[in-house]
Amino acid sequence: MLIRNINQDDFEVVKKIKPIIDLETFTNRLERQTKGDVDFLVLEDNGDLKCFVLLKWKGKDTHPEYPDIEDLYTKESERGKGHGSKLIAECEKKAREKGFNKIGLAVNPDENCPAHKLYTKLGFKNTNEKPYIDGIYNGVEDWCIDMEKSI
């Protein structure tokens, strides 16, 4: 099993994992990675990409003071096998190596119960701040809460 930074050649496979990702978003993430603003990571096993995540070094608008995990996405057939947990652990390790003692993420606890359950199991706690609209996808508001973890 290998965790590495995503490169341009990975687009087609990443798109198979998450069909709604477009080339513009993918390319933007690679450009941000080149600048050192993010790590766009993938977990692969024997050349098969299982899941990916975006680790933002400058956090997010609600918590810019520590890194933020965004868009953790696992291939449907690979869910529940621990791949997401391994990627999160790698994000935590990278953040510690850069001197951070906290890491965050956002999740919709009602519409994405499996992710919320996973993050809670891994030690992330609700910041108890007001939920907010993270985005609008297919005309539906995505209401999220911030979660954080000391690392």
Description:
The structure is a single chain. By secondary structure, the chain is α+β, with helices and mostly antiparallel strands. Strands 1, 2, 3, 4, 5, 6, 7 and 8 form an eight-stranded mixed beta sheet that branches. The protein is built from four helices and eight strands; from the N terminus they run E-H-H-E-E-E-H-E-H-E-E-E. The chain has a single domain, classed as Gcn5-related N-acetyltransferase (GNAT) (Aminopeptidase). 28% of the residues are buried. The mean pLDDT is 94. Helix content is 29%, strand content 35%.
Query: What is the CATH level 1 assignment?
Result: Alpha Beta
Q: Which topology does CATH recognise? A: Aminopeptidase
CATH homologous superfamily annotation: Gcn5-related N-acetyltransferase (GNAT)
CATH architecture: 3-Layer(aba) Sandwich
Quaternary state reads single chain
- The CA-CA distance between the termini, in Å, is 23 Å
List SSEs in N-to-C order: EHHEEEHEHEEE
In short:
29% of the residues lie in helices and 35% in strands. With 151 residues, it is α+β, with helices and mostly antiparallel strands. The protein has one domain: Gcn5-related N-acetyltransferase (GNAT) (Aminopeptidase, 3-Layer(aba) Sandwich), CATH 3.40.630.30.
Q: Which labels suit this protein?
A:
151 residues, alpha+beta, Aminopeptidase, 8-stranded mixed β-sheet, 4 helices, 8 strands, 29% helix
